[in-house]
Specification:
Layout lengths: L4 E6 L3 H11 L5 E7 L3 H11 L3 E3 L2 H7 L4 E4 L3 H13 L3 E5 L6 H14 L3 E4 L6 H12 L10
Parallel strand pairs: 1-2, 1-4, 2-3, 4-5, 5-6
Length: 152
């Protein structure tokens, strides 16, 4: 199969600029074909830099006018749920940075949308790969910080 998975990105912030787009350039079989951000100038500049053909200022426009298979939600936390739900309603798979939503009820809405539309959601947890987090993890695993189970 030679077709690439067509990705749209919602949010043109730092994580998209220094994390997702450089990494996606290296992923064979995928192509970022659209990006949107409420700061259209920033989205356009990023689209030019990464050769992304479709640029919009609103997720609704991106979902309507870009041929997509999946969407990466890289917006501020309070927008994750609504952006994920919009993409799921368009029957697209979703990668969303954590948290999926700000409340358990919001997470349940996303889960129900996945079930309703037969799509998938993946939650990004990139913090776990940061060197400082890895170091803390090693302290916890070695017992150097004591018995953390007892403070629950």
């Amino acid at each position: 199969m030679t077709d690439k998975i067509r990705l749209g990105i919602v949010g043109a912030g730092a994580l998209t600029q220094v994390g997702h787009l450089p990494a996606l350039r290296k992923v064979r079989g995928s192509a970022v074909v659209g990006i949107c951000d409420n700061d259209l100038a920033k989205a356009r500049a990023l689209a030019e830099r990464f050769e992304i053909p479709v640029v919009h200022s609103d997720i609704t426009e991106l979902l309507e006018f870009a041929p997509l298979d999946a969407v990466l939600v890289c917006t501020p936390n309070h927008l994750h749920e609504s952006h994920a739900l919009a993409a799921l309603a368009a029957k697209l798979h979703v990668f969303v940075e954590r948290p999926v939503a700000l409340t358990p009820a919001g997470v349940q809405r996303v889960i129900r949308a996945v079930q309703k539309h037969g799509t998938q959601v993946m939650v990004g947890a990139w913090h776990r790969y940061r060197p400082d987090v890895q170091m803390i993890r090693s302290f916890v695993q070695s017992g150097e910080l004591g018995d953390l189970e007892s403070i629950r």
